[in-house]
Amino acid sequence: MDAATTALRALADEGRAGLVMDFDGVLSHITADPAESQLLPGVRELLGSLAKRLAVVALLSGRPAGFLAERATIPGVELHGSYGVERVGDAGDIEVLPEALRWRTALAEATHILRQELAEVEGVHIEEKSVAVAVHWRRAPDRDAAESLVAPTLTTVRETFGLRREPGKFVEELRMPLARDKGTTLRDIVEAHGLRTVAYAGDDRGDLPAFAVATVRGHALVVDGPDMPREVADVAGAHFTSPAEFVAWLERLDDALERIPRSTRAE
């Protein structure tokens, strides 16, 4: 039995099962402009259906919680943004970890300097992410040249303000140095819902801590894509060639759960 089918059967058969997913590159295509990222067609309805049948369905993204709230507010689906530093509360408000508040001034100053210093680098985009700032160079005509230009400034700003580096595909984030990543947040979700098994879907380096938790507590679901970092490609688990193929797997999971009423599954 292949890894994708094994994961599907585990979620369908286990009464306390959860599904947690990244947004970009998993439920949406990677876009040159991060603001253009949207759920793939049909995903909203699919997640709503899964949320009625699993113990928890959640999105866990490096994007701010407000970004997720605008694009993926779905009844029953939890929204965790900024690697878990933020979440969308039951009333639709944004809840932020208290320890993040004291880093806001430093992050604002760091963002201002990045905008000033990198304004003339062609194809570079600065994205403010509430509790982080990201420098993208995916749109640069020469990505290697752009990276060599932004790297020294990123290093200087990171060291000056004591921020933490989080590299990705043609992007680097500077984050508040909190003891929080997708792994710690996934572990909190598992414990909060008393899950017996959990599957986590991601596609980039920021997902590695969550994959590590998922391989112990359940199943890692890796959505492959162009320019995927080697360490992500090497994650043990189910691999999908694209967000579209992963969404097709979600449809199979939904069908399987529909055939097995929740009241008759293992508790």
Topology:
Elements: H1 3-13, E1 17-21, H2 43-51, E2 56-60, H3 65-72, E3 77-81, E4 86-88, E5 94-96, H4 104-117, E6 125-128, E7 132-136, H5 143-161, E8 164-168, E9 171-175, H6 182-193, E10 197-202, H7 208-217, E11 218-223, H8 230-233, E12 238-240, H9 243-259
Parallel strand pairs: 1-2, 1-10, 2-3, 10-11, 11-12
Antiparallel strand pairs: 3-4, 4-5, 6-7, 7-9, 8-9
Helix pairs in contact: 1-9, 2-9, 4-5, 6-7
CATH fold category name of the largest domain: Rossmann fold
Structural class: alpha/beta
Largest sheet: 8 strands, mixed
Strand content: 15-25%
By CATH, the architecture of the largest domain is named 3-Layer(aba) Sandwich
User: Which residues form runs of ≥5 with pLDDT under 50?
Assistant: none
Q: State the helicity in percent bands.
A: 25-40%
The tally of domains stands at 2
What's the end-to-end separation, in Å?
Answer: 24 Å
The tally of helices reads 9
Descriptive report:
The protein is an alpha/beta fold. It has 2 domains: 3-97 and 180-264, 3-Layer(aba) Sandwich (Rossmann fold), CATH 3.40.50; 99-175, Trehalose-6-phosphate phosphatase related protein, domain 2 (Alpha-Beta Plaits, 2-Layer Sandwich). It contains 9 helices and 12 strands. The protein has helices at 3-13, 43-51, 65-72, 104-117, 143-161, 182-193, 208-217, 230-233, 243-259; strands spanning 17-21, 56-60, 77-81, 86-88, 94-96, 125-128, 132-136, 164-168, 171-175, 197-202, 218-223, 238-240. Helix 1 packs parallel to helix 9 (243-259) and helix 2 (43-51) packs parallel to helix 9.
